[in-house]
Design goal:
The longest helix has 20 residues. Strand 5, helix 5 and strand 6 form a beta-alpha-beta unit. This protein has ten helices and 15 strands. 49% of the residues are buried. The strands form two sheets. The protein has a nine-stranded mixed β-sheet with strand order 14-13-12-11-7-10-9-8-15. A six-stranded parallel β-sheet has the order 3-2-1-4-5-6, with helices on both faces. It is an alpha/beta fold and 344 residues long. It starts with a strand and ends with a strand.
Length: 344
């Protein structure tokens, strides 16, 4: 069967990650790209051997393109998604799904009405470790998962450009990198219903970028910095479970690269590196370090999107899940602004 043909909207840094990763995919390929900056689209197109379309309308009008990937700044997710759906295209949008819950709801409803697939780029679910953990949780081997801890901290990792402009990004490291840790922990827990959120956001550090450091620079420029440096908080769920998180781009402490732990009544797990904790059959402490093959999450994400378009698989990151994650993120920001715990 021919590969599913995809178009990419946006030609910046994350678009190039998609282009590279999809070049290894078994069931899909990128055939066209569009960016509001024509020279950026042309450069990416030449590098990866695809066509640079002159307009969004031209890309969406192509009959050979079945699905599109939205690799644009956060504030463009909603309008680009609605335009693609109106053109009958299946959509994989980068995270976060949108700026607001209302926008995310609009996207989910539009996809349902048009009978097209809507996926959200929560790519960490496609890593090997979360899949191993999720399988054990579903089998009940870890008992009731009652708590999760997740951390993703950078010492001086604030991106340069639109990322630090709240009107375009929706927030700082919580919505940019914290979203991955929060989502994958929630996914491994079994996706319990969130009910309450409490967050504390800080922007205390004057020097965001230090000498001798290479920072992530966005193709869409900007010099506004009105987002948090770091966020701490907790989400509680309907059956009493809790998730504690910390997410930061700028802090005077050690870096924590995607550290996630789950605690269950029958066992626990540290996700990266993968270590299961529990009891041996004869009553001793026990640790297990499974041997497994790692996966490139962006490639697996694209393959799942293409398989869902063909009706061969269910989406692992459906829009409905993205909507719940959006509700958690927006509740955390509301809590930080109000200084109170809020309902999700």
């Amino acid at each position: 069967m021919d590969k599913v043909k995809l178009g990419i909207i946006g030609a910046g840094n994350i678009a190039r990650v998609h282009l590279e990763s999809i070049s290894y995919a078994k069931n899909c390929e990128v055939v066209a790209i569009y960016d509001r900056q024509p020279e950026v689209a042309k450069e990416a197109a030449e590098k990866f051997g695809v066509k640079a379309e002159e307009s969004l309308e031209a890309l969406l009008a192509r009959e050979d393109i079945e699905g599109v990937i939205l690799a644009v700044p956060n504030y463009q997710h909603n309008p680009c998604c609605l335009a693609a759906i109106a053109a009958g295209k299946h959509v994989l949008t980068e995270k976060p799904m949108a700026l607001t819950v209302a926008q995310a709801e609009e996207m989910v409803e539009a996809a349902k009405k048009a009978n097209v697939k809507l996926a959200v780029g929560l790519c960490s679910r496609f890593m090997a470790e979360p899949q191993i953990v999720r399988e054990r949780v579903e089998k009940g081997e870890m008992g009731h998962i009652y708590a999760a801890n997740c951390s993703v901290l950078r010492r001086r990792g604030a991106p340069i450009g639109w990322f630090t402009d709240k009107s375009r990004s929706g927030g700082g490291p919580l919505i940019d990198i914290g979203v991955h840790a929060i989502d994958v922990a929630w996914y491994m827990m079994g996706k319990p219903k969130p009910v309450l959120a409490k967050a504390l956001n800080y922007a205390e550090i004057e020097h965001k970028h230090l000498k001798g450091m290479e920072n992530y620079v966005a193709f869409e420029k900007g010099d506004v910095y009105d987002v948090e440096d770091i966020s701490f908080g907790m989400i509680t769920f309907e059956n009493g479970e809790c998730m504690r998180y910390e997410a930061g781009n700028t802090n005077n402490g050690r870096e924590k690269d995607f550290e996630i732990e789950l605690m269950g009544s029958k066992g626990g797990v540290q996700v990266t590196p993968l270590v299961f904790y529990g009891e041996s059959c004869d009553g001793y402490f026990a640790e297990e370090k499974p041997q497994y093959v790692t996966t490139f999450e962006f490639t697996k994400q694209a393959e799942n999107f293409a398989a869902a378009i063909r009706g061969e698989e269910e989406l692992r990151t459906p829009g409905e899940d993205g909507l719940v994650v959006q509700k958690m993120l927006n509740a955390l920001y509301r809590s930080a602004e109000s200084g109170r715990e809020v309902e999700v």
